[in-house]
Amino acid sequence: MPLVGDRTIFNRTVVGLTYSSENNDSKVSVHWREDPFELETESEEFDYAIISAPFSRVRMWSPMPPYSSLLRRAIDTMEYDATCKLALHYKSRFWEKGDKPIFGGCGFTDVPGAGQICYPSYALNSTGPGVVLAAFSYGRPSRSVSALKEEDYVALGQRTMIEIHGEVAREEWTGEYERKCWAEDEHIGAGWANPAIG
Questions:
Q1: Are 38 and 118 members of one domain?
Q2: Of 61, 88, 107, 120, most Cβ neighbours within 10 A?
Q3: Do residues 184 and 85 make contact, with C-beta atoms less than 8 angstroms apart?
Q4: Which of 38-47, 94-103, 179-188, 189-198 has the lowest mean pLDDT?
Q5: Is the pLDDT confidence value at 186 over 80?
C-alpha cells in the first residue's frame, strides 16, 4: 500500500482494453462502465497494465487490442470447469468421536451432487465447534448443483451429512453455512482453467 495505495483504483469492473503507440510512446487504456446501459465506456490511460483476470472474463471484454492469433485463440477457447462448495457449521466436531473417527482429509460420496466431503485438519480433538466442507462438486455435476436454489443445495449437504453420520449431524448443525458456486461469480464465471490436451 505505501507504494501503490494512492494509484490503486477499486470497485471498477474492467470491460475492455485499447493499446496505442505514437512516437515510440506506448500506452494502454483500461475501459469500464459506471452505467452498464451506456454505449460508450469510460477509460484511463497507463504506461503498463498487468492483466490477471481469467480468460473466462477477458473473452467478454470489448474493445480489445489486436493480439496474436495464438493468444486470441487461447482467450476464446480456454476451457474452465465449474465448481461449487458448501461449508456447514456444527456445534461440535462429532466426526472425530465414535468407533471410526475422522481426522481431516477428503472423501468422495455416492450421493448425487454432493461430490466430496472434506473434514478440517486443524485443532484436532478440540472441544469447540467445527466446519465441514459438506459438498464439493466440480465439472459437470457442479453445473447441475449451481442451478439449485441455495436452500436446496444446503439441504443436500445436510442430508448427506445425516446419511453418513446419522442423527448426530442433525442435532449438532447450527444452521450456519457458506455456499460458493464460482460459475455464478461475476468476476470469474468458472472454477478453474482446464486446458484441453494440445
A1: no
A2: 88
A3: no
A4: 189-198
A5: yes
User: Is residue 179 assigned to a domain?
Assistant: yes
CA end-to-end distance (rounded Å), the chain: 41
Domain end, chosen from 56, 77, 98, is at 77
Distance CA 156, CA 146 (A): 12
Query: Which residues, 6+ apart, have CB-to-CB distance to 47 below 8 Å?
Result: 26, 27, 28
Length of the chain: 198
**Angle in degrees, CA 184, 186, 188, rounded to 5:** 85
CB 145 within 8 A of CB 137: yes
Residues 86 and 45 in one domain: no
* Percent of the chain at pLDDT exceeding 70: 99
Cell of 100: 471410526
Model confidence over 76-102: pLDDT tens digits?
Answer: 998 888 899 999 999 999 999 988 999
Same domain? 121 vs 151: yes
The last residue of a domain, from among 77, 99, 130: 77
Whether residue 173 is contained in a domain is answered as: yes
User: What is the pTM for the complete model shown?
Assistant: 0.79
Residue 128 sits in which domain range?
Answer: 81-184
* Dist. CA 99–CA 101, nearest whole Å: 6
pLDDT digits (tens, 9 = 90+) for 3-46: 888 888 888 999 999 998 887 789 999 999 999 999 999 999 99
CA 74/CA 61 separation, integer angstroms:
14
